[in-house]
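Handout for the seminar on molecular recognition.
Each group receives one record of this type.
Step one: identify the two inputs.
Step two: read the structure output and locate the region that could contact 2-deoxy-2-amino glucitol-6-phosphate.
Step three: write two sentences on what you found, then compare them with the reference statements printed after the record.
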Amino acid sequence: MCGITGYIGYREAYPIIINGLKRLEYRGYDSAGVMLYDGNNINLSKTKGKVSHLQENVKHEISDKGTLGIGHTRWATHGIPNDVNSHPHVSQSGNLVIVHNGIIENYDAIKQELISRGYTFHSDTDTEVLINLIEEIKGQEKVKLGKAVQIALNQVIGAYAIAVFDKTKPDEIVVARLGSPIAIGVGKDLKEFFIASDASPFIEYTKDAVYLEDEELAIIKMGREVKVRKINDDSFVDLKIQELQMNLEQIEKGGYEHFMLKEIYEQPRAITDTFRGRLLANEGIIKISGLENNMKKFLNAERIIIVACGTSWHAGLVAEYTFEEFARIPVEVEYASEFRYRNPVITEKDVVIAISQSGETADTLAAIKLARSKGAFVFGVCNVVGSSIARENDSGAYTHAGPEIGVASTKAFTTQITLLTLIALRLARAKGTMTSADFRLYLQEMELIPNKVEQLLKIDDHIKAIAKKYLLSTNCLYLGRGYNFPVALEGALKLKEISYIHAEGYPAAEMKHGPIALIDDRMPVIVIATSKGHYEKVVSNIQEIKSRSGKIIAVVTEGDTTVRDLADHVIEIPETEEALSPLLTTIPLQLLSYHIAVMRGCNVDQPRNLAKSVTVE
Ligand code: AGP
């Protein structure tokens, strides 16, 4: 998820673009760039680092003059964050310039074709491939920019929001969208237009905005109404100008009160993006290039050791269950901070999976270095492209959650589980430890997860009402079995880190070995009782709590009746396979902790004593 901006009008474009990029930095902040057209020349500056770094560069590198420009702040997906992979990207002739937010999945095939036609590439990005494809089509078909962009977009697979400029046609900018947002700010009397990933960059200039829908393309030209067309059939689309109601702060949070809530609500999209190009349920295929290229290492592994910290460690614990059940590979899950000093027995027959959202967690980085020094193969599961951990691994795969700003990890957790489950399923297929019928069942069920999360988000008010009853609690217990034991741990961590209520997660059966002593009528106990997860056993655990007057908040599968009669509060989740249920059961626990923390007046996005990335040990 990157941020793109653009301007065409009568004002100086540079200040508008730079301020816009700063407002979009929550979308991505590993590199930035700007292109300005001063009536004769294209002036372009781009660099690794934050927008403030770009500003420094512009001062020394280029003229900042011109009333037309496009800009970009990056969240790397293809190609690590560095100057050459930063946007904007320029076509081979130097005439076409593009900024892009999204992922072109079939970029490599197109790149090979263009290379065979004499194109050379400077970066590792999918975006540079797209701008040269547009140039090739423009040249071959002898068409205008808008048409060339349309034809090119009908040849690519993936997601995009793009803004394209053509030096040979300097009075227009072409924008298009599929999957990634783009807004056009319409200036008074059509004398100026603003382009951005959301309205935050132009909210103070105009309240009139056009939000492109998926598969739409618009040609923006001074003094003329914006023309919107469908990309697939070139048909015209009626222009819908909306009046913006939001203020700036709200927009950055997308209208949500906190980044954490926004990120909870982004999970359907984040999980879908983590699927993208990897889960092909109709073809019954899972393909993850980092895994495919190292399949032998995994298939010959004597065991898999997962190293991580905090929430990522909980995702690793879920993966232990899936890898062992699906692929029958023994798994050990290690706290990286303990692993690095425990002098663990590691051999070259071990595969180590390192999980980290930020990719900068010091303990996890050290654990990787230790494992590699002992000959183990290290595979990373990271969210930040080009991060230290991503660079330290032998190979890996990225979760595509987009930037996670709230310190309490939410969408990174569910996308980590998504990716690790895809890997476990792929290994099961390769090892033949799962029937093709079961394999297809899981692929189809996984594809349904984003919608089921969407459904769950609709009962937010119900969860908020439950939260209200427990915001004065001083302690809380979370219980789960099997796949949902790690979810109980994660639920407890969320409540601890943002509401400062002491909470503990336990395997439900462990209760009798101690924690049950804590139970009385002031102790809320959150129990995960999904229909396919040791249900009867969990029901008896609930009866044990009830008989000691504990307050029971039960997460159950929709249609459950038994637990409903026992629990004080019930939160229903849609039915799914037990191995996939952590992707659903964790959502109400995120919302419960969020609402309790907000109602206790806590700083939910920046809780006390915590940092988003723990780069020290
Ligand atoms: C989770 O909400 C916390 N922010 C924290 O436990 C986090 O998961 C841990 O620090 C690991 O971070 P990483 O995934 O970036 O390595």
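Reference statements: The CA atoms of residues 26 and 403 lie 7 Å apart. The first strand starts at residue 3 and ends at 8.
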